[in-house]
Amino acid sequence: MVLLSHSIIGVAAASVFPSHPLIAFSVALASHYAVDAFPHWDYKLLSSKEDPGTPLNNDIVIGKNFLSDARRVFIDALLGVIASSLLFYFFDFGHSVLILIAGISGGMAPDFLQFVYFKFRKEPFKSLYIFHKFMHSCHKELKQHIVVGVSLQIAIVASIVFLIKFFLID
Predict the structure, then answer these.
(1) In angstroms, rounded to a whole number, what is the distance separating the alpha carbons of residues 11 and 96?
(2) How far apart (Å, rounded) are the C-alpha atoms in residues 113 and 124?
(3) CA-to-CA distance for 49 and 59, rounded, in angstroms?
(4) Are 41 and 114 in contact (CB under 8 A)?
(5) Whether 26 contacts 106, CB under 8 Å
(6) Measured between alpha carbons, how far is 126 from 112 in angstroms, rounded to an integer?
(7) CB-based burial of residue 106 (10 Å sphere; 0-12 exposed, 13-18 middle, 19+ buried)?
(8) Interatomic CA distance for residues 167 and 100, integer angstroms
(9) What is the pLDDT of residues 74-130, one digit of tens each?
(10) In the predicted model, is pLDDT for residue 63 greater than 80?
(11) Distance CA 102, CA 80 (A)
(12) Model-level pTM?
């Protein structure tokens, strides 16, 4: 999923624990891995170098395509922060800005931790990377089917936000 989706879902999940920022962050972090198991679409990073034979050798190459990817990821993350903030205030998720921050950061963290793994290749980043790859392997990739993939992602986000807001909060 894109960071926008992970951010919104992270805030929704975090809002279930409005008085416990650390638990809220942890639940948002777990939500990232959980929803990655659903079919969805991801944009391709042009600077990514994949090794189909040994996925642990995958990398992000800091070169000519890296700035383009960094800009795309920044915009995705910024849209996630804006959309999550608007939803947080519009639907009154949680009770503090701290929960909003915990949800956004927890929801996005696993994707940023992959970059950390690519550059350091040490524990605990290696295990987190393996787990992240496993969660993505639970579904068929929809890279060639953008309309279906994005539609599924919107439906998943809307369903989770609706369920949490109307059944778990208040």
Answers:
(1) 11
(2) 10
(3) 5
(4) no
(5) yes
(6) 13
(7) buried
(8) 19
(9) 999 999 999 999 988 777 766 689 999 999 999 999 999 999 999 999 999 999 999
(10) yes
(11) 13
(12) 0.91
Strands (DSSP E) along 70-130, which ranges?
none
Amino acid at 164: I
Give residue 58's identity as a one-letter amino acid code.
N
Omega within 30 of 0 (cis) for the link into 110:
no
**∠ Cα 138 43 160 (to 5°):** 55
Residue 62: alpha-carbon gap to chain centroid? 22
Tokens of 99: 């929960």
Q: Do 31 and 1 meet the contact criterion of CB atoms below 8 Å apart? A: no
Nearest to 136 by CA among 41, 66, 4: 41
Residue at token pair 């927890």: 106
Residue 3 makes CB contacts below 8 A (sequence gap 6+) with 73, 76, 77, 79, 80, 107, 108, 111
Q: What's the sign of the alpha-carbon dihedral 141, 144, 148, 152?
A: positive
- Are 84 and 104 spatial neighbours (Cβ–Cβ below 8 Å)? yes
Q: Which helix (H) or strand (E) holds 158?
A: helix 146-163
Rounded CA separation 15/132 (Å): 23
Q: Is 47 helix (H, G, I), strand (E, B) or coil?
A: coil
